[in-house]
Protein 1
Amino acid sequence: MGVRVAIVGATGIVGEKILAVLDERNFPVEKLFLFATGAGKTHEYFKGEKIPVNPIDKTKIPETDIAFFSAGTEIPKIYSKDFVKNGAVVIDNSPAFREDEAIPLIVPEINPEQIKKAKGIIANPNCSTIIMLLPLYPVYLRWGIKKIIASTYQSVSGAGREALLDLDKKRNPPYFFPFEIDKNIIPHIGKPLESGFSSEERKMRIETQKILSDKTIKVSATCARLPVRFGHCISVTLKLKHNFNIDDIRGEIESFTGVVVYDKPDCGKYPYPLFIEDKDEVYVGRIRIDPVFKNGLSMWIAGDNIRKGAATNAVQIAELLL
Ligand SMILES: NC(=O)c1ccc[n+]([C@@H]2O[C@H](COP(=O)([O-])OP(=O)(O)OC[C@H]3O[C@@H](n4cnc5c(N)ncnc54)[C@H](OP(=O)(O)O)[C@@H]3O)[C@@H](O)[C@H]2O)c1
């Protein structure tokens, strides 16, 4: 049976990748409706066919089965209910609904059962959280995790097309970032919070607890933006509940769906942004015992923020709905 699909934000970095992933995975698209501001691109291509891109009009919301939203936080708040009313399940990439207890937040390899709770809207988690949790989940299942200390090294594409232009055009003064991003590191992502953390760092804590349905797990994140185009890397140190053998850790991570252990530092084998760019899998290297904690474990995780961190995860959620 064919599926009527809408993409709101179809011309963005994530929206265009959703189109590519739907095509690659042979998602049974019967009809495609694409939306953006109307001021930018007027069409996109899907399977060689030219598809018009239109501005959204509340009075002309089409009847669809699945509507992907990747157009910032405000647009889904305004329009997602209209799509639901007209038959769609909305899969939203933004933070708009992620903390709403009534709305499932899904990583298909981790909590697919949450799909049953969906009443029209499903939230796609934050990119760094998805990438971090994929390899941590098999460790969590077998040994338990008490604490996560994470430092992210996030690419510029994670902030959208305008941000990427700051880097590509070496814009100075920059348009999107507070400082020039080329040859620089900005040790702050999202809004500053009273706690001293940023909104991005808060997302990694709150969303980890929601996805794992575990409010006891402690997460401390520091998020930084680097002059890298695609791919987020995360240095993670964990305190596990139980002692472990490092080979067993490797084995559990290796056999988990969607994760690749790529770990031979003596011959330069570890994942980095240019290596993982445009790959769906999350890669892990530098797996080692950490001496700071009892049952301490450290690793280096890398994944493509536009693929598994956004588009691929969203399309996998749509596949669960099928
Ligand atoms: N980039 C990532 O790594 C990543 C990862 C996870 C989640 N996300 C989330 O995904 C969403 C999109 O991110 P992105 O990186 O793809 O951003 P982007 O490249 O800046 O694209 C934004 C898209 O939203 C559209 N848009 C903006 N205002 C609109 C409006 N009023 N009506 C209709 N469409 C509108 C834009 O259309 P025009 O082209 O016409 O301007 C464009 O298609 C964001 O909510 C972001 O938080 C991004």
Note: The helical segments are 13-24, 74-85, 127-143, 161-168, 199-212, 246-254, 273-276, 307-321.
Protein 2
Amino acid sequence: MSVHVIGAGLAGLAAACQLTESGHHVVLFEASKTAGGRARSHFDNVLGCRIDNGNHLLLSGNISTLSYLHRVGAKRSLTGPAEPVFPFCDLRTGENWTLRLNHTGFPWWIFSPKRRVPGTGLRHYVAMLKLKKAKSTDLVAPLLAGAGPLYSGLLELLAVSSLNTTPDIASAALLRSVFAETLDRGGYATIPRYARVGLSETFIDPALEWLRERGADIRLGERVTEINPAQATILAVPPWIASELVPDLMVPNEFESIYNLHFKYSLDPGEAGFWGFLGGMTEWVFAHKDVLSVTISAANRYAGMSPADIAAKVWSELATAFSLPPEIPVHRVVWEKRATIIATPAQLARRPKTRTHNPNLMLAGDWTDTGLPATIEGAIRSGNSAALALMSSLED
Ligand SMILES: Cc1cc2nc3c(=O)[nH]c(=O)nc-3n(C[C@H](O)[C@H](O)[C@H](O)COP(=O)(O)OP(=O)(O)OC[C@H]3O[C@@H](n4cnc5c(N)ncnc54)[C@H](O)[C@@H]3O)c2cc1C
């Protein structure tokens, strides 16, 4: 039987692959002329090269993502350091240092001043244990305040970038779920990974090819405006579209933005290919072939600044950290206004489950109740879950 999948972002693609592998004929509808949704690459006229809409960082503990890439034959298109290392530039002190986790589950790196966050001692890591007991109403910043330099030197940045929400209002329980699948499992689950060439080349194009080879009907540029309740369907569109298509569906309705700034500049990628930044506006910097790309999460707080002012500020931070010329190179600023849902306890309570009142209709998307933040891992997991739920419903 044919199954309709609506939306060819990562959630829809993961669902389509799961269904296809299980022998279903999939018709995949995508409103845009290109697939990929919020994880896509395109040619940029100003920079004269292809860029991603934004840097996407994965960790080796993102097992649903790795399985998806393995399925479509694209696992080798990821790259990153061989070890669980995270280089940092601290703009407050001018210090450059590298967090070096050990591979095994027991975190002996916290006993080594050369491996841990500068200025931290054992008591700061003990304070972090509070996260393990976080309740659904707890917020990151107040819960982790006791972690002192560990908070300001690492946890704050990890929280804002993994939850895309400022830690004063972000759910501590959601951060716990991120750490449970990565840091808590040890360095082997925390090795940084990112697309070698581009997001589309890793996550999107191989999946489309894999689906086409197996007979899926992929309809790009076809916006779905209504759902046939008798048709087996997975709805993998953003929440505001899902609530238009499914009456009475409660969805998250507050969003956070992400700034990505792409500067035409070639920099030695160093040990990891990226750096975390502390004490400035810049958060993560990726050294691509001839572009330096900067990510700033939870960017609603900068809505009052012009893109030109943001670019000037960020370039001055990069120039300071890497001793670069002060003149700002050719650049492109991308502001994704509704990059993800905002991860406050109140908004997380609005995330719907996979199943709807209609046994023929399942929901997927990073905004559904995956137990993870709105990330690639969450999106892919939601697509897998929706496919499995629909197949079991069709068998009943
Ligand atoms: C700038 C940025 C940086 C990010 N960084 C990271 C990161 O470092 N690590 C990480 O894990 N995640 C990151 N994310 C999050 C990640 O990109 C998303 O979680 C993921 O791409 C969401 O996939 P999705 O399929 O749930 O949604 P979407 O990608 O939004 O897909 C929904 C699709 O539905 C289509 N659609 C909408 N309406 C219709 C309709 N009526 N008919 C047919 N199709 C329709 C849309 O065009 C879209 O293609 C980042 C996101 C952004 C924006």
Note: The pocket of flavin-adenine dinucleotide is lined by residues 6-12, 29-32, 37-39, 53-54, 56-58, 223-224, 236-238, 241, 258, 260, 336, 339-340, 365-366, 374-377, 379 (CB under 6 Å).
